[in-house]
């Protein structure tokens, strides 16, 4: 894209773009680290994630300030306007992803030493891998200006939903088998739910990024395969 | 109970967003070209001006937007070397038809200029001049009524009602511009052309004129040339983008300023032009 006649306008937009990338990188690393901390019961790592969330919040505030100032100073139009509003909304989703990762990290202490049997958490590990691939993919497609890729990635969220449904069933089964699993499994269930929510935020980001790049909205409907709201286990 | 399918719902929402309440074409340009001597300034412009809507003409300096505006009431006739080709109609009537009375045409298609240019006469005389020469008022009372209602429509009456016999040139720039608008309104035009009407005004006077444009569109069809993108976005329903004498793109203002189709429009409105 050609440059603005006023060069500092480009710099202002670049600063906002840089913050989105930093927030996305941070969100990705927080999600990966929180699941690692969960699976290895690493309290120190969990603590680090909690403090990283403060960094995330600060970046969001900085982005908000810059976006507001840019709108006031430059009155952006067309793709510039979409980029600024899109950035504000994407930053909101990234900040929420940070919160959810922090929530996973906080549960590390509650589950406790040695109480996370490998078998219980295997599905969560898989979910985290899917979620992280989504975050990376969406940001790469946005940076590379590939709207079709964003459309495809948005649909990919269904894989996370499917995985979540299966983790949900699995954890219910463990709880029925042995009531001593209930504490750990309940916490793991929340962690799985958090990952599923993160997937939804990434979907929002994909939709916003698509709008920024094309000026068109993706169709409102997307397949939803999270069936846990209606899942029961047979007696 | 009637339950809409999602598809139907989407159609309904889509329709309400694009619904046209008023789509009467007031003026129409077909293959309009303008030459100044040998030099062609405008090429094959095809543009519809919709009734009771504000159409903004935008584009960089020298793009032909003012030239096109001036074709609509044959202001280019005043320039000896200017020659207009193609066809421009007002309610389907060719405005360049030799049988057309140009004075009458300009009463129907009034104009407000960039710099407020009141006559060096009283406020009253400025507004009363047009109706007088066009024979729109038979009695003094008629004329008084026209002057008052024109000043009221131009949102100037309250500020000048106690001094209508003072010189128009004694008003502030913003008031002078509204006086010129009142003068244009006084002859009961159907279309008002505005050539950068706010470029010489401060932001408060600009806001007043913009508010006025918004009110005037209920009774008049307005075409405005402006260099302020924000102003075009604020006051108009349709926007036409000119570049190097060509009409690049024309469309609903909401779309033109959020997601224009043409690269040149995009570059121009976002401040990326040459």
SSE layout and pairing:
The complex is a heterodimer of chains A (235) and B (274).
Chain A (H helix, E strand, L loop, with lengths): L6 H33 L3 H32 L3 H34 L6 H26 L3 H31 L4 H33 L21
Chain B lengths: L5 H13 L6 E12 L2 E12 L3 E5 L6 H8 L9 E9 L2 E2 L7 H7 E4 L10 H11 L6 H14 L3 H4 L12 H14 L4 E5 L7 H14 L4 E5 L3 H7 L2 E6 L2 E7 H4 L6 H7 L5
Parallel strand pairs in B: 3-8, 3-9, 6-7, 7-8
Antiparallel strand pairs in B: 1-2, 1-4, 4-5, 9-10
Please provide a written account of the structure:
The complex is a heterodimer of chains A (235) and B (274). Chain A has helices at 7-39, 43-74, 78-111, 118-143, 147-177, 182-214. Chain A is an all-alpha fold. In chain A, 41% of the residues are buried. Chain B is an alpha/beta fold and 274 residues long. In chain B, 38% of the residues lie in helices and 24% in strands. Chain B has helices at residues 6-18, 65-72, 102-108, 123-133, 140-153, 157-160, 173-186, 203-216, 229-235, 253-256, 263-269, and strands at residues 25-36, 39-50, 54-58, 82-90, 93-94, 109-112, 191-195, 221-225, 238-243, 246-252. In chain B, the strands form two sheets. A six-stranded mixed β-sheet of chain B has the order 6-7-8-3-9-10, sandwiched between helices. In chain B, a hairpin with a 2-residue loop joins strand 9 (238-243) and strand 10 (246-252). The longest helix of chain B is centred in the middle third of the chain and has 14 residues, at 140-153. Residues 14-19 of chain B have low confidence and may be disordered. The chains are: A mainly alpha (235), B alpha/beta (274). Chains A and B meet through helix 3 of A and helix 9 and helix 11 of B.
């Amino acid at each position: 894209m050609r440059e603005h006649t006023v060069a500092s306008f480009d710099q202002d937009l670049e600063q906002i773009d840089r913050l989105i990338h930093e927030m996305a990188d941070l969100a990705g690393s927080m999600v990966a680290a929180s699941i690692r901390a969960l699976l290895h019961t690493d309290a120190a790592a969990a603590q680090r994630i909690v403090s990283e969330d403060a960094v995330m919040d600060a970046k969001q505030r900085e982005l908000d300030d810059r976006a507001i100032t840019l709108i006031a100073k430059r009155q952006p139009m067309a793709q510039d306007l979409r980029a600024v509003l899109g950035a504000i909304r994407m930053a909101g989703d990234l900040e929420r992803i940070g919160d959810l990762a922090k929530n996973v990290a906080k549960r590390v202490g509650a589950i406790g030493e040695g109480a996370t049997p490998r078998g219980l958490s295997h599905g969560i590990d898989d979910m985290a891998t899917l979620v992280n691939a989504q975050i990376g993919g969406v940001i790469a497609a946005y940076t590379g200006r590939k709207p079709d890729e964003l459309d495809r990635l948005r649909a990919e969220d269904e894989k996370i939903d499917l995985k979540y449904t299966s983790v949900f069933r699995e954890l219910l089964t463990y709880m029925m088998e042995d009531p001593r699993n209930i504490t750990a499994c309940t916490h793991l269930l929340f962690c799985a739910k958090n990952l599923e929510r993160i997937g939804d935020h990434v979907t929002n980001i994909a939709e916003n990024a698509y709008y920024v790049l094309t000026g068109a909205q993706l169709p409102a409907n997307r397949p939803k395969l999270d069936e846990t709201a209606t899942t029961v286990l047979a007696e | 109970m009637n339950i809409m399918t999602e598809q139907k719902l989407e159609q309904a929402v889509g329709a309400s967003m694009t619904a046209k309440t008023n789509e009467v074409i007031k003026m129409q340009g077909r293959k309009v070209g303008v030459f100044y001597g040998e030099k062609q300034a405008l090429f094959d412009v095809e543009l519809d001006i919709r009734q009771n809507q504000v159409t903004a003409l935008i584009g960089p300096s020298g793009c032909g937007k003012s030239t096109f505006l001036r074709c609509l009431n044959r202001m280019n006739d005043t320039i000896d070397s200017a020659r207009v080709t193609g066809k421009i109609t007002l309610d389907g009537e060719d405005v360049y038809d030799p049988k057309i009375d140009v004075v009458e045409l300009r009463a129907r298609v009034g104009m407000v200029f960039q710099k407020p240019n009141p006559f060096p006469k009283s406020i009253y005389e400025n507004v009363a001049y047009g109706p007088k020469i066009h024979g729109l008022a038979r009695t003094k009372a008629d004329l008084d009524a026209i002057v008052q209602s024109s000043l009221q429509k131009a949102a100037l009456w309250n500020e000048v009602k106690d001094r209508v016999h003072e010189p128009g040139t004694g008003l502030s720039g913003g008031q002078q511009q509204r006086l010129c608008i009142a003068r244009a309104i006084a002859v009961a035009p159907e279309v008002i052309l505005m050539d950068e009407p706010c470029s010489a005004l401060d932001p408060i006077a600009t806001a007043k004129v913009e508010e006025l444009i918004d009110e005037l569109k209920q009774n008049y069809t307005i075409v405005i040339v402006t260099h302020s993108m924000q102003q075009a976005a604020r006051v108009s329903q349709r926007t036409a983008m000119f570049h190097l004498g060509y009409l690049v793109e024309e469309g609903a203002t909401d779309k033109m300023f959020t997601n224009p189709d043409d690269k040149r429009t995009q570059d121009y409105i976002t401040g990326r032009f040459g």
